[in-house]
Amino acid sequence: xxxxxxxxxxxxxxxxxxxxxxxxxxxxxxxxxxxxxxxxxxxxxxxxxxxxxxxxxxxxxxxxxxxxxxxxxxxxxxxxxxxxxxxxxxxxxxxxxxxxxxxxxxxxxxxxxxxxxxxxxxxxxxxxxxxxxxxxxxxxxxxxxxxxxxxxxxxxxxxxxxxxxxxxxxxxxxxxxxxxxxxxxxxxxxxxxxxxxxxxxxxxxxxxxxxxxxxxxxxxxxxxxxxxxxxxxxxxxxxxxxxxxxxxxxxxxxxxxxxxxxxxxx
Length: 266
Hints:
Largest sheet: 7 strands, mixed
Strand content: 15-25%
CATH class: Alpha Beta
Oligomer: single chain
Strand order of the largest sheet: 3-2-1-4-5-9-8
CATH superfamily: Vaccinia Virus protein VP39
Number of domains: 1
Helix content: 40-55%
CATH architecture: 3-Layer(aba) Sandwich
């Protein structure tokens, strides 16, 4: 599909995904913290679908879990293999493929991560197919954890980064808010994407037959802050994280967060 070729080209030749989590330390910290709530002491079989260059895959493998990484962009898989060789941590497999058609056996995994696919699929039928594939490859009682972009994320990006004088950005933002569609046109902004509302996220998980477990904000109210000074000091960082945790489920605050995480069970 044209949309996914555009997305693949963005990651293949325009954007360095390999150090994205270094550039977004609060998002990375919070994602690991939330994922950790669903990890067992026993060795788990985990599929990191759309896992890019393996930021979460290698973190999980380092803890002793068996991890298969899949991503749509060939460069990401090549970079993951290079990283594996440099840090001495092996994943079970490195697969270049489509999240809607997984190359795995039914009932293979204890945990499936979808930390990117749902926010790159603009068509609901594609998102549901992706979720149904995750359902298929999970064991009974297996857990799915999905990261999605908030419908309102670009409001904060626009005002924090002085983009509101850019007419094209404003056009993109207005489409985000009205329909959830993010189309970069001929700009250098983020690639083709879909921005969820909280209720739509819950609906799609349930349509794919998952039992809903939880939905939390990732950055929470900190999305509206310049967090560098809070994260550079250990004491301030712990204070920030403490209050993000305290407010991560408050309905009135969910829309502020740049990203949400939804958890379901097979």
